[in-house]
């Protein structure tokens, strides 16, 4: 019997690489849709697409068990009007292309898991947001709102739909954690701005397990916050990271310095300064077993242990 196929659109990046490894280990045939396909030795098949036009790649979805869509221009760039348009278009266009592809399938995928982000809630202050909370305000909320609206509009009646609103992802080999670790080691890891803004983080291992469960278990459908149940303020988060890396103190980084540093690094200060206080209410209700429910254990695993 042929192995079940999983198609990961935008699967060449940070999260997609971890998912490709995990689903391959679980016996699936993994196909990645990418703008730059290359030959691989690990059994994963990379197939060309442009992220918006349904063409030859659409046949990969016919008879597939699942499609996971992670596509999107990286949010870690200056949020100029031009970049905001590109951030939105890369997400909405890919959702629309996959919807068209599924509509043309003889055997549509059983499930479509769509990435979104907790930026959906906007700046939450210290209000704890569960999945039932409405869309917030601001650029990130608008991007996520358009992304999720396109997914809701996708008419794929034979395919179960799941949205994962992903939090601040902590991993060894990508994303913001390695950068924060370097700053802390050089005594530049103080709290950012007033430090009271929340960070809703998640360890990569738990995020991967959320994708596995939602792909394999039909009882999961609808929107889920993909965060650990341990949102922390920026001051608490940076304090825990300093403790882990044996740097007891660093001077706070005032807001103007965060803005200047972000500009110099080609990043966006909002990502450090806005508050995201979220709870994984639906995963907790489903008795999801977090491997890393608290920050201390997550940072010890990622910063001190070898992979
Ligand atoms: N990492 C996080 O902490 C986090 C948090 C919340 C939400 N998310 C969301 O989760 C998804 C995956 O995150 P990630 O960290 O794995 O992102 P990533 O490493 O940046 O990967 C995203 C992939 O999207 C594709 N892509 C980028 N720009 C594109 C464009 N203009 N048109 C078409 N494809 C494009 C790229 O694939 P090719 O270049 O191979 O085509 C890239 O590998 C993203 O949508 C992200 O917004 C991530």
**Broad shape:** globular
Number of strands: 11
CATH superfamily of the domain at 5-171 and 201-227: NAD(P)-binding Rossmann-like Domain
One letter per element, helices H and strands E, the order comes to: EHEEEHEHEEHEEHEEHHHHH
Structural class: alpha/beta
Strand order of the largest sheet: 3-2-1-4-5-6-10
Radius of gyration equals 19 Å
CATH class descriptor name of the domain at 5-171 and 201-227: Alpha Beta
Termini separation (Å)?
Answer: 34 Å
In short:
The protein is of the alpha/beta class and 307 residues long.
Describe the fold and architecture.
The chain has helices at residues 14-25, 81-103, 139-153, 177-185, 204-216, 234-244, 255-264, 270-273, 281-285, 295-304; strands at 5-9, 29-34, 45-48, 66-69, 111-117, 160-166, 168-170, 198-199, 201-203, 222-226, 232-233. 36% of the residues lie in helices and 16% in strands. α1 packs across α5. The protein has a domain at 5-171 and 201-227: Rossmann fold (3-Layer(aba) Sandwich). It is built from ten helices and eleven strands. Strands 3-2-1-4-5-6-10 form a seven-stranded parallel beta sheet, sandwiched between helices. A two-stranded parallel ribbon has the order 7-9. It is an alpha/beta fold and 307 residues long. The site of NADP nicotinamide-adenine-dinucleotide phosphate (NAP) has 23 residues, from α1, β5 and β7. Residues 10, 12-16, 34-36, 51, 70-75, 90, 115, 117, 166, 168-169, 175 line the site of NADP nicotinamide-adenine-dinucleotide phosphate.
